[in-house]
Specification:
Layout (H helix, E strand, L loop, with lengths): L8 H8 L3 H9 L6 H14 L17 E5 L8 H16 L3 E4 L16 E5 L8 H5 L5 E4 L12 E4 L2 H13 L6 E4 L6 H16 L6 E2 L7 H14 L5 E4 L4 H11 L9 E4 L14 E4 L2 H16 L7 E4 L3 E3 L13
Parallel strand pairs: 1-2, 1-3, 3-4, 4-5, 5-11, 6-7, 6-8, 8-9, 9-10
Antiparallel strand pairs: 10-12
Amino acid sequence: MQESHRARLVDVARRAGVGKTTASDALSGSGRVSSATRDAVLTAARELGYSANPAARHLRGGAIGTIGIVLPEVVSRSAYYMAFTFGIVTSAAAHDIDVTIVSPSTSSGRSRPIRADGLIIGDPLSGDPALPALVESGIPLVTQERLPDDITGTPDGIVWSSHEAAMLELLDELDNTGARYPALLVAPDATDWSRQLVSGYRTGVAARGGDAVLAPIAFDAPWSAVRESTERLLREHPETDAIICGPDSSAIEVVATLARMGRVIGDDITVVSCVDHPSLPFLTPSITSIDLRARDSGVACAELLIDLIEGRVAPGQEVEFPISIIARDSTSRSLAVRR
């Protein structure tokens, strides 16, 4: 009982031998829970000294009126995550709900409850030490993309996109240029987004009889790292005639690096991007990219979380969010020179 302040909903669920959602329903008096199950959950809660976090009581008209966003540190330097956050804020404001940024270090010895009715985690990162505690916190949780394989548990809602299919479409666009040796700049196993990109890339390249060439680089890599990775790629694989840029805004530095190296996009090499950026239409040539619709994705995550909090939908929701290719000049014509 002396450790009661550390008891979590997931601990109660395990003690009672039920799932987290069932335990939450039993404690709140909602949902379809048998009397025997409800008694088992209440007994487990009493034995553990569990006291429900008021932020985890996802009943209509919750007392806090705030949702939290857990974002990677790159957010301040990423046009994508800035737009994603703005979408969440816009949606929440329409429901008279505030938004707060939750520190990623929440899991490290934090004793006070998270002051939010629910959380949105943007593209959960493999190896993030905060994720297990957040997933097991009992607070309604929506993730943008799926949890990495090293995290157990299930969020209450998932907004996901088929990045693998988008990569295959991006390779179809590259076929217009005649490029035969595309290379991919991405962190291979960091997130569901990057894993899907790598899977689609490998599948597409193999279907064309080629070999996959990956240049590992973090999503939040500074431009100096993008430049070094591009230069290393072309030294080690001089046959490369297309560079697929994973990280947000990396295509800008790749284009600049190619220019410094005397390479001309449209002659012997071309560039496409897995994340659209406001600058890409204005580069010369303009860069074909995947439109992830960041702001609308934020809106979709917020709307799903609010529906969960207010009881309009049951936990376990998965929403596919559509994305598409924006074809621009970098894939509009055949390469002029073959190396």
